[in-house]
Specification:
The chain contains 11 helices and 8 strands. An 8-stranded parallel barrel has the order 1-2-3-4-5-6-7-8, surrounded by 6 helices. Strand 3, helix 4 and strand 4 form a beta-alpha-beta unit. The chain starts with a strand and ends in a 5-residue tail after the last helix. It has a single domain, classed as Aldolase class I (TIM Barrel, Alpha-Beta Barrel), CATH 3.20.20. It is α/β, with parallel strands linked by helices and 217 residues long. Helix 1 runs parallel beside helix 3, helix 4 crosses helix 5 and helix 6 packs parallel to helix 8. The structure holds erythose-4-phosphate. Erythose-4-phosphate binds next to helix 7. The site of erythose-4-phosphate has 11 residues, from helix 7.
Length: 217
Amino acid sequence: MQLFLDTTDIDVLKDLASTGLVDGVTTNPTLIARSGRPMLKVIAEICELVEGPVSAEVAAMDLDGMMAEGKKLAAIAPNVVVKLPLTREGLIATSEFAVQGIQTNVTLCFSAAQALLAAKAGATYISPFIGRLDDYGAQGMDLISEIRAIYDNYEFDTNILAASIRHTGHVTDAALAGADCATLPPKIFADLFKHPLTDLGISQFLSDWSKAGQSIL
Ligand code: E4P
């Protein structure tokens, strides 16, 4: 399973990418706005730090605008993935980008039927929003399982990118449900390393080791 960071914070990205465990990055208009920096610059900097896919989202809602913005974003670096909303125009743009060999991430997916259409359009990634479905009173993780079953039934090669992840349990459940990747806010990524029993075990081992009076080096 690939793990992406959902961030536009360059310092945070540098720090977590140094673990060698960050396979890619996703961004969205909210995260770009929050950075307070020009989008094209931010995406270019992220692409220099991460070799894997970097999703950059169009803001246009009409087809011509999506195509123009998508081409501009894709020209930033070879690892840019053009992120498009799951609308009728977004899926037409997805098909056109597929023909041009430009990778796409279809975002704001909330149903298996939408995911089916995105796969038929030739999307490279589909982003089901787990947390927002949970917030809405639905079972977000069920959507991952449904999409996995549909994509396997018809051998679609669109990658399932679990998005809107709220806690580490979502990451585990998405992995169990067969998501190809998940995109995580930095805090959740950092939380994946942690377990209270690991901390307890370390302090116990260190305390016993100090009593042994030994040195490995
Ligand atoms: C994914 O591509 C989105 O940027 C992100 O996961 C949205 O998460 P949110 O629901 O926490 O805003």
